[in-house]
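so my prof wants the structure for this chain in the tokens format not the other one, which i didnt know existed until like an hour ago. anyway here's the sequence
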Amino acid sequence: MVETADIQDRDSGFCYTIKEYESKKSEDDNGWKHEVIVLKPISSDPSYENIYLKEDDLLSFKIIGIFEFIIE
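here's what i got, hopefully its the right format
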């Protein structure tokens, strides 16, 4: 689960969203860094789009939880 004050979920109006996380990293002499993070919707609704976060965007997003499995 990701939180941001800059974007509201279009369905709920809240600043939280659950997406699949993908990261592209690069490494240099100073260590590694994210080139881009992609937050992918977990939905069959084609109107939902990926959210692409670049370096400046990352400061306003906070990971607040990780979905691992459903408890039955």
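also thought this was worth mentioning. Residues 2-63 form one domain.
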